[in-house]
Amino acid sequence: MCYVNSMTKKGRKSRSHSRNADVTIREFADSRTITNRSKKTSLEVIEEMFDLPDIDDLDDEGRRIAKPAKQPLDSTPEDHVYSTYPVDIWFLIAEQIRPEDVGRFSLICKTTASVVATPSFWFSMYKRHYTKTNDSLIPVRLQPDCMVRWQGLRSCVIRSLFFTYKPFVERLPALAKQDFHSLKSFWIVSSWVQPDKDDWTFCYKLRNHMPRPTECNRGFNNYRDIFFNPENGCKVLVVTTKKYCPLPDLRGSTSYVLTSINYCLTTNLRDYRLTLVFSNYQKQKVHSTVKTVVYEPVMLVQVLDWWTPAYNELK
Predict the structure, then answer these.
(1) How far apart, in Å, are the Cα atoms of 145 and each of 66, 78, 119, 142, 164?
(2) Which of 170, 213, 245, 293 has the most CB atoms less than 10 A away?
(3) Does residue 99 have a cis peptide bond before it, meaning omega lies within 30 degrees of 0?
(4) How far apart are CA 88 and CA 118, in angstroms?
(5) Does 33 fall in a domain?
(6) Is residue 10 part of a domain?
C-alpha cells in the first residue's frame, strides 16, 4: 500500500485546486459558508480548456461567426474629408454668437479659438449689446470712450455684459447665493469693513491661487494683452451682521489661508453664527498661526465673483 502524507510543509498553505470538481452546495447563495472568491465550476474549467464559444457566436449550423475587429473610438475612416473654411467666414459667424456660447464656439477648431483671441471679436460683442440708456449704470471704465484700450479688454467686456445683457443680469441673484464653503483653502488678499445704518458689512477678498511674479508683471510688460486680468480667480466673501467684530490682523511675511468655514444655528435657535478660521502656512505646511473670527448674529452671507457689478462696488 502507498500512503500519502496529508500534512503540508511548515509555513505553507495548501493550494490544491480541483479544477474538475463538481458543483458543491457551498457555491449557492443560501450556503452558510461565506467566501470572498467564487470557485470555478466544472463548466467554466472546460470552457477555459477547450475555448468554447458563446451561443450567440454560433450560427444555425453550429459554426463560429467571425466578428469584425473593433476599431478605437478616436479612429476615423481613411476616406474622411475635412472642410477648411477661411477665417473671414468664421468672423462672420462669430458676430452671431451669443455671449454664453463663446466657449463652445472656441472649441470647434483652432481657427475659431484664434478668432476668440482677437480684439475685434470682443469689440464686436461689446457694441452689439451696449446701449446708451445704460450709461448711468455702467462704470466709466466700461463705457465706449475707455474700451478702446486693448489691455484687459476681454475681462472688461465680460463685466459690461452683466450690465447690458439681460440673461446675465437675471443670473446675478443666483450667483450671489453660491455655496461659500467652496472658498475653503483660498488665500486671503485683503479685508475691510463697511458700516451701515443698522448693520456692519465685513468683506474678505480671497484668491484661489497665489499670484506668480510673471502674472504680476504681465500687464506692465504688454499693454496689448486682451487677456490681462489681475482679478482672475478672486472672490469676495461678504458677511452682514448687527454686531461689530474687529477684523483679524492677517498681515505677515507669509499669506493666510481660509482653512475652515462653519455656519450653524446659535443656542437660541433663531440666529446664525459664522466662524472663519485663518491659518498661516510655512514651507513645511505647518500651521504656525491660527486666527479665528466669529460673527453672530449673521444676517446675510454672499460670495461675489470678479465679473459681478457688486464686486467692483465693494472695492
Answers:
(1) 71, 53, 16, 8, 16
(2) 293
(3) no
(4) 13
(5) yes
(6) no
Does 194 lie in the same domain as 219?
yes
Question: Within this chain, do residues 97 and 124 fall inside the same structural domain, yes or no?
Answer: yes
Task: Show which of 155, 174, 193 is a domain's final residue.
Answer: 174
Q: Provide the phi-psi class of 269: left if phi over 0, else alpha when psi is between -120 and 50, else beta.
A: left
> Looking at the domain assignment, is residue 31 inside a domain?
yes
Q: Do 201 and 310 have their domain in common?
A: yes
In tens, the pLDDT along 73-100 reads 555 566 667 778 888 999 999 999 999 9
Residue given cell 468683506 in the structure block: 203
Which cell goes with 260? 475652515
Count of structural domains within the chain = 3
Select from 134, 135, 84, 129 the least CA-distant residue to 110: 84
Does 242 lie in the same domain as 127?
A: no
Q: pTM to 2 decimals?
A: 0.67
Angle at 157 between CA 132 and CA 133, to 5 degrees: 10
Cα–Cα nearest to 157, from 185, 114, 120:
120
Torsion over CA: 147, 153, 157, 158 (sign): negative
Q: The C-alpha cell of 237 is what?
A: 466673501
